[in-house]
Specification:
Strand order of the largest sheet: 1-2
Radius of gyration: 33 Å
Helix content: 55-70%
Order of helices and strands: HHHHHHEE
Number of strands: 2
Strand content: 5-15%
Shape: flat
Length: about 180
Amino acid sequence: MNCKTLIYIIFILFFFPNLIFAQNIEANKSKPKHSPRKASIMSACLPGLGQAYNKKYWKIPIVYAGIGGFGYLAINNQIQFNKYKNAYKLLENGQANDYPDFNQEALVHMMDGYRKKRDLCILGTVAFYVLQIVDASVDANLFDFDVDDNLSVSIKPQLQSDFTNSTIIPGLSCSINIK
């Protein structure tokens, strides 16, 4: 092979590398990857939609029960707070209220208690909302994770002997089998 032919071959290899690939790029495309970003965005827009995208339909009622439960408690605590606040205002003006046995200090104490409960329920609602977004993202990341019978971990109790002191030491043995 002469020098001129070698230069042509090197030129073709460097400037037209797609000619040397033996694989068909279209044939390598398998099913589309499950997107954690898409699952997170879907869950942020409508709670439970990311779980539906991940085909974890059994989680959707849990999401709505958690968000709805905390939301109901927040609204209920706000209603109770408003009742005690109105009773406090009426008592300040010298009018009769729904709680004649309570003085101003007791009404303030009840208002503070319901305000704290309401705020905690709002935090619970927000935490449950964020948790379902994180859950959808994690599920999407692990969607294609392969768990089959070829992987196993076994943890068994084991007794080891200490030859220096002639004693037996209890412990655990962990074995990982990859078939």
